[in-house]
User: Fold this.
Amino acid sequence: MRGKTAGVIVKPEGHNQNFPAGQYVLKVASRRMRVEVWPGPSASPETWIGFPDESEKPHQQQTALLATVSYVDGTASQLRKDEEQRPWLSLGSHDPGSEAEEARMFFNIDLGEHNNPFFIYYPPSFQAAFPNAFMQDIDGNRIKIDSNPIGEVENPVPAVDDPDLRRLSKKLIKQGVESLRGSPWLRYYVIAGEECYPDYFGMLPVGDFRKAFTDRFNLYSHQEKWGLAFDREAFRADPDGPLGKAWYLFREHAMADRAADYMHTFLENDSEHPVFYPTHGNPFFGLGQSGRKQLGYSPGLIAGACDGFETGQISIDTDVEFLNLLTLSHNTSWGVPVVSPRLGNKTLDPSARGGGRSFTPTMLRRLFYEAIGHGVWHAGLLQWTGVLGDGEWFIRDTPAEQEALQVFKEVESASPYLTGMSRLQSRVGLYISDSTWIHKGWQARWTGFYQDALWDHWQIALVGDQLLGEELASKIPVLVSLDNTLIDSQAIQRLKEYKKAGGCLIRWGEFGQADELGTPFEGDPFKDAHGVVDVQSPPDESQRELMNACTTGLGAHKHVTRYQAAPFVAIKEAILSRVPESYLCPVKIEAAGRIHAYTLTDGWNLVTVLVNHESQSTAPEEVQETGIGNRSVCLQRLQANPNREPQL
Assistant:
C-alpha cells in the first residue's frame, strides 16, 4: 500500500480461518491506498465458488483473507456480510462496485490455480473426479503431503499441465477478468500464485511422472531433436545423465507453457491491463544445489510468456547473499516491467513462531530502496499484520512500522524525480548460461563477482540465453563469462551472432565444455576468435563463503559454499581495454565507505539511488555523470540519519 500512512489491512480472527463465499462490504478511512487481493485456491472448502457442475466446485475456491479491518490509528471494525449493499469486492463475482471508487483504492488481483500443497487443498471428492490432475513420483505413486495448514491429510500436489485443472482455472480467470476489467482502480493481474515442482521443498520426491507428462516429454524431445525417449529405469539409474538433463529442461518449458496458456486467457478477456508471473523461493543456491531446477523456473521463458514479473523474494536477516538484489537485477535485465508487492525479510528468532519475525527498520529501508533503485513499478512490504506457520510477519506495532511511514514519506517527496523513471540500460553484462545454472547450480563465483561489481558502483545486467544474439551487441557491448561449463548449443550460435555484431566476450574459467545434455563440444567454440578476451589470472587467494538461505517453518534453510573468487581487478582491466569506464559506472561516486549506486533514467535525466551499507551515517563527497550522453543528473539528497542506510 502507498500513501502518507500505511493503509488498511484485512486480518483473520484466527489462524487460517476464512469467511464463506458471499458479499462483504469493506469500509476504509484512508482516501488513497493500494491493496493486493488474492482469490486463488483456498485452504478452506467453505470458500468455494459455486458452479453448476458440483464436481468442479472444489477447485473453484477463493482465498478469503478476511475478518477484521484494522486502521493505523489503532481502531478496528468488523467485516460483515450484507446482501443488500453493493460491495467493492464480491467473493464469487469479483465485482469491485462503487465502494472502490468511494475508497479510492487501487488494487491488483491474483487469479487462477497454484500448486503449493502447503497452502491449497483438494478434497477427496475432487481427487476422485479428476484422478489424473495430481503429480506422481518415479514409481507412479501420487505425490502428497501428510497435512496442510487446515489439518487435512494426504493433500496431493496439483499437476502443471492437467487439462481439467487448466480448464477450471481459465474459467475462473475469465469470470474474474470480465468483472474487473472495467474498474479504474485495477492496476494489474497476477497469474495465480506459487508454482514449483514438489522436489523444491526437500521433503517430497521428484515429479512429475504421470504418463501424460512423460508423453509430453517425448514430444518435446522429438522437437528438440534430442533422440531421447523417457525410460523410468534409465532415469532412476542416472538422473544427472543426458536423459535427466533433458527431463529438467522439459519441466521448465512445461511451466512456461502453463504461464503462456493462462496469459492468453487474460488477453482474450482484457488486453488493457498487464499480466505478471509470480516468483518465489530462492533459485540462486550455490554449488551443489539448484533451486532453479527444483522450481522449474526459467526467467527467460517466463519473460517471453508474460508481461513481466511479480516478485516475492524473502531475504533472511541482513541478506548477505544479496537475494533481493539478485532477484531485482536479474528480472529487470529482461527489459520487462517488474513489481514487488511481496517484498519480504525474515529476522531469525527462535522464540518466534516459524523461527522469525519481519523487517528490522534498517532492513526495511535498505530493501525498499533497492527496489526503487531498480525501477520497480510497485513495491509493497510483507506484511502489515499476520502470523503464519513460517514466521511472525507483521510490521504493525514494531519499530519497522515508523520506519515504513518515514520511507514512504521520503519516496513521495522524491516523486517529481522518480516519475517516468526506469532502470538505466546496463552496458556490461554477466552471462549466466541456462544449462550451467540448471544442471550445475547457481555458481558462487557469479554472486561474488556481482557483489564486487556493486561495491565498485557498476551498472551490471545478468544476461541469460534468451537475450543473446545480434541485437544485444548494441545494448550490452561487453559480456563477462565465469565458469559457464555447460552451454546450450543454440546459445553458442547466438553468442557467435553477438560477437559478429561487435560484442566483446570476456572469459574466465571454464567455458562451453559441453552442451545442454552434457555432450562435449569438439574443442573450444571460440578458440582464437576475434572479439573474445581470455583472462588468464588465477582466482583470488583468499577463500570466501556464500551463504544461501530461504525461509522455512523452523527459521531458514541455509547452504554454505566456500570458494575462491574470480580475479575482479584483472577482469575489470580487460573490460577497460575495450570500452571506457562510463560503460561500467554511468555515475561516478566518490565516497568513504561502502555504498551501492543504482541509476534510473526517463530517457534524458538520471536519478541515482545510493544505499549506505556502513553502520554509521555517511554521504557521498561527489556524484557526477561520467559521459554516457547529453543528460543531466538529478540527485535528491535526503538527510542521512544513523541506521538509515539508503539515500536518494
